[in-house]
Every structure is written in C-alpha cells, then in structure tokens.
Amino acid sequence: MVANAADVLITNVITFEIQNMAIKSAIRNLSTGHDEKYLLTALFENTVHVWDLDSGKKISEFNTILDSGGDRFAFSEQLGFCVTGAYYKDGVACYSVPDGKMQWQRKDLKKVQSIRISPDGRRVFCCFDEGPCQVLNYKDGSTLEKLRGVRDVEFDPYNSYLLMDKSNPEIFTVNGEKQCTLPRDGFAILDIAFSPSVVAISESANNVRFFDIPNPKNSLTYIPPKSYHVLNLTYNDEAEDFFGVLWDYETGTKKTLIKFNVPELNVIEIADLTDSWEEVFVKSGRKLVTSSGKIINTKNGNVDMILNFPMCDYLDD
Q1: I want to staple 50 with a disulfide (CB 3.0 to 4.6 A). Which of 59, 95, 135, 180 is the partner?
Q2: In this prediction, what percent of the chain has a pLDDT beyond 90?
Q3: Up-side HSE of residue 174: CA atoms within 13 Å toward CB?
Q4: Residue 13 belongs to what H/E stretch?
Q5: pLDDT at 36 over 80
Q6: Looking at the DSSP assignment, which residues form a beta bridge with residue 170?
Q7: Cβ distance 1 to 152 under 8 Å?
Q8: Is the dihedral of CA 137, 143, 149, 151 positive or negative?
Q9: Considering only CA atoms, which of 267, 278, 268, 269 is closest in space to residue 232?
Q10: Is pLDDT of 46 > 50?
Q11: Which residue segments constitute the domains of the chain, with CATH numbers given?
C-alpha cells in the first residue's frame, strides 16, 4: 500500500534526484499475487516483466498502460491476470499473465491512485483522487459496487477481514459486517499488515501503531527517528514478528529492513536497503524483493538470490 496524499508524492519526487545517484535499477514497481509464486515488476512506465520467484527466471515481458505514481499495479496469481492504471487518458486495464493480452479497459476511470485485487481474484478495487472507490468485476471490468469515502483497502489473510482506509479506518468481515473503527494518527496511511490477532498501520511522517483485533482498545506505538517513517509492513508467520522498511524521507539516502519484536517493540536492523528504490514482501513475509533484484531473507538479512533486473545509469542522462 502506498499513500495517495499529494505531499507524499511530492516528497518522493524531490528525494528521487538524491536516491538515483546510487540506484541503477530500471525497476520502479513490484507486485506479487496472494499465492506468491510469481513476481511482477514494471519499469517507470508501461513495460511489465513476470518472474518465477523459485527459479529466479524471467517468464515473459509485455507492455501495459501503467504510468508512474501511486500504486497502480496489482496481480492475481490465482486467476492469472494483472491490472494496471494510468492517471489521465488510459484509465484502468486488465491483462492476462503471462502472455500480456489485454482483457478489458475502462478509459472512463480517471485519476486512479491505488489498485487492489481480492484474495479470490474476483474483485478489483480501484481508488481515486476524487470520487468513490469502485469495485470491478475481474472478467469484464464492469462496476459491481461504489464505496464512498474509501481511499484504499487492505486484506487480512488470516481472518478474511477487509480494512477500508477512510477518514478513520474501518475493519469489516467478509460478509460486510463492521468490526471496529481505528483512530487516525496522521494524514496518510503508508502501509498495513495483519497477523492472526494484530493489525499494524504505518502513517506518513508518523508512527507505526499495532492494534489488537477485533478489539482495538489495546495498542502499541513505535515512534521512528526524526525524519524517518516506515514505508512497507509485513508479518512473517514463521518468525511470528512484524517487519518493515524504515526510510529517511528527508534525504532519501538511508533505507533499512527492520524487525519489530511485539509486544516489547524492540526494533532490530536486519539489512541495509540503500541500493533499492522500491520493495515488496513475498512468501508470507519471509522474503523481501528489492528493485535492485535482491531476494532477502527477512529473518537474517541474507541475500538468497539476485534477479537479473534491467539496469540503467542515470548519471549518463
């Protein structure tokens, strides 16, 4: 999950000029399905690659309407398709994976900022800068439902909960029954992760909070160092701990994989990620894939494999 607030996007643009001095990877987007056997990566715009996470081999490559910004890139491994978005004229489009054939396109859906796919692959959630979040049929892109006031959604893999990012985030059951409301602590949510009994929420230029669910009255708070926030969150069910990516958003030059020991909230640095622009947790939080192609074991920080991602040299531009 990536925050959609304009201030976060502006900060990312400014710090990109500093970061790209050290980062040579051409990859700017990463996405994995709920089964996590395959990884989809994308360049700054358009081109998508499909990778086998076990063998490290690239399976295919195809062009899409994807453009930069937001979180406009989602993959359903179970049903074999991905959905990408563009902010202006091209809207939202679905492609079969791995052959990249366009299945449908909704050019009327402008200013999309986040795209999510339900765990069963049958619903595509598109959230926008303006207007309600639209839930689309995966087969033809038709609108099934409109969710007013919803900025983004996140799925709980353990209890089938659905978190809706609203003025105050709300958690629902799979049947649509509201379980609880969580207090907001900042202007934009960066990421959300679930364990079997806890939900963790990271907010832009702010803290990471851990709530018991479905009773959120009990909570813990991690306060990052000044000018840092946690971009990505996951729960590693093997280690039984939460992990995150801590980033210095003022300089853009320091990024670290960290582990949260809950409930003590001791934070341990696991690996340096300074050579990465973007990351995604895979294999139920047991691995982290970076835009530089590294597959990192989250428990010990070891690099298990390096994917042959395309590179570019910004210093020559």
Answers
A1: 59
A2: 71
A3: 10
A4: helix 6-19
A5: no
A6: 164, 181
A7: yes
A8: positive
A9: 278
A10: yes
A11: 6-316 (2.130.10.10)
